[in-house]
Amino acid sequence: MKPWILGLTGGIGSGKSAAAQHFRTLGVHLVDADEAARWVVEPDRPALAKIAEHFGAEVLLPDGHLARAALRARVFQNAEERRWLEKLLHPLIRQEICSHLERASSPYAILVSPLLVETDQHKMTQRILVIDVPESLQLERAMQRDQADRKQVEAIIKAQASREERLRHADDVLVNDRDLPWLYSEVERLHRFYLTLRGGQP
User: Fold this and answer.
1) Measured between alpha carbons, how far is 200 from 1 in angstroms, rounded to an integer?
2) Nearest of 142, 139, 128 to residue 170 by alpha carbon
3) pLDDT tens-digit readout, 67-102
4) Could you write out the DSSP letters of every residue in 131-167?
5) Residue 7 has what DSSP assignment?
6) Among 4, 30, 176, 200, which one is most buried in terms of CB atoms within 10 A?
7) How far apart (Å, rounded) are the C-alpha atoms in residues 190 and 24?
């Protein structure tokens, strides 16, 4: 039987990657939209040439790879530039995600995406799990992890869907405001529940 698809999302610093990795250790096939976004801008892909043509050589590293930090700084300061980039990349990312999900052989597969509800990626899923965290904790974790200043993290939070918007789409919510062992035990609890579902429904 074809696996059903769980969408897993959460804002920056919410711990969605830690939750996703634990699902992976439990044998669940995982496709990460961020990884798909990296694959589509590899040096031999046409998307990178278009990005360099549009933004200029300063978004390329000397070895020909994408200078992510430089590009991120440009698009988070300019909504029009961000829209241009999204229009180019989202269809390509979607294609990559689909081809990787089709290879899944676990009872359900997971699409991990920070932009699950902002893009139409949520339409590829039968159920949505939101990793939720209070904004103050989100800021603190993201600043620490990325060695980023408060302003930059706040800009990223602002560009993502609001907490309320994400929760409106959620079928399941995991509030990740404790330690890692607790997060893992919650993931295991949800995994046991998901194994009882057919097509993402009880």
Assistant:
1) 13
2) 128
3) 999 999 999 889 999 999 999 998 999 999 999 999
4) EE--HHHHHHHHHHHHT--HHHHHHHHHHSPPHHHHH
5) E
6) 176
7) 13
